[in-house]
Write a structure and sequence with these properties.
Order of helices and strands of chain A: EEEEEHEHEHEEE
Strand content of chain A: 25-35%
Number of strands of chain A: 10
Largest interface: A-B, 54 and 54 residues
Structural class of chain A: mainly beta
Strand order of the largest sheet of chain A: 4-8-7-6-5-9-10
Helix content of chain A: 10-25%
Oligomer: homodimer
Number of helices of chain A: 3
Largest sheet of chain A: 7 strands, mixed, barrel
């Protein structure tokens, strides 16, 4: 099998949402090899750091939490689409000539994957695109932006997706991934009661 | 497919190594829904918390780091063995009548999986067992203890395994898993330069 690691590296210098200092990971080496030959570390992470999976609780007070996500749906076939030509949000008109079917997980490769800084004009999924996708009945969507939407009052893209049980992966690293079909693995940590989790996301191409 | 989640839940009340307060996760809700309708959280984690994968750097100053682990080896066939009858370390004599072959990943189900507290007498892999397994040429080992060894001066079990390129999963939750063969998925977060990572570990039984 061929494996694509579609995960951003987590370190203190990584790109964080809106460059907010409080969203930057903090790493502490808590023990070094000169103490009994053992090195240990701890990490402080915003759960929406880098490549991560949102839970409905992120946007909905009565939403489900990240530890209850159905793992079977996060080990699944998926389709990568190329929207690198776009310099604005992805709308219904960008999607409706692609082969997207009920039960699909769709990942959007955009110019975001080629930018190693936080671009406030990042490419996102417009409400019209979210409505189109939930109308088809997809089960998940992934983007290479740090958010699936931006600057839409009331967060209608998130709400449209969550209301239809569609999961949302953000911060994917798709630069080196050709358009096509893959097996996706993107399992969240089992963080009790939380609104998101960082994930190690991979795509697998089987022979 | 049938999926077994073999991951401990991460929360502030979980069992931590030697019950050390500094190893307990800290969870902060950093934004609530009454601020723009968005909930966000951060978590502070010892990277050896709960179900986790060690990197050689944990025990070896020149060891490789968790972000360089070969992911293909962590999406792989594995074998679960039952050692719930043991009340001491797992030795060569416990292993040598089992069918363990070159390239295997072996997971040990012990009484640890049935204890929801830190037992200082947890079941571990003795040096003789580690030498036997590396002699066969296994590629990974997993345990339901929070450590693969205990109270062995100089940590010979870890060193024996790491010197042979065998990876070490700790803190698996195997209580409900029957003995048998499965597909394992246990991918670490992409934590730059660190000595371990929490993982969401699952076993898959395909039809």
């Amino acid at each position: 099998m061929k494996l694509y690691d579609i995960t951003q590296t987590i370190d203190e210098h990584m790109t964080v949402y809106k460059n907010k200092a409080e969203k930057r990971p903090i790493i502490n080496v808590t023990r070094t090899h000169n103490v009994g030959g053992v090195r240990e570390s701890s990490i402080t992470l915003d759960v929406h750091t880098g490549t991560h999976l949102d839970a409905p609780l992120h946007m909905q007070a009565d939403g489900t939490t990240i530890d209850t996500m159905a793992l079977e749906q996060l080990i699944t076939r998926c389709k990568v689409f190329d929207f690198t030509h776009l310099d604005r949000g992805i709308s219904k008109g960008d999607l409706d000539h692609h082969k997207i079917e009920k039960g699909d997980v769709v990942l959007f490769k955009t110019r975001n994957s080629f930018e190693d800084f936080f671009n406030p004009e990042f490419i996102y999924l417009e409400e019209s695109g979210a409505k189109y996708l939930t109308g088809i009945g997809i089960k998940g969507v992934g983007t290479d932006g740090l958010g699936i939407e931006r600057a839409q009052p009331g967060h209608p893209t998130h709400h449209t997706l969550f209301n239809s049980g569609v999961y949302v992966l953000e911060g994917l690293a798709l630069k080196d991934v050709p358009v096509g079909e893959y097996e996706l693995i993107a399992l969240p940590l089992k963080l009790k009661g939380l609104d998101a989790s960082p994930v190690r996301a991979v795509l697998i191409e089987r022979d």
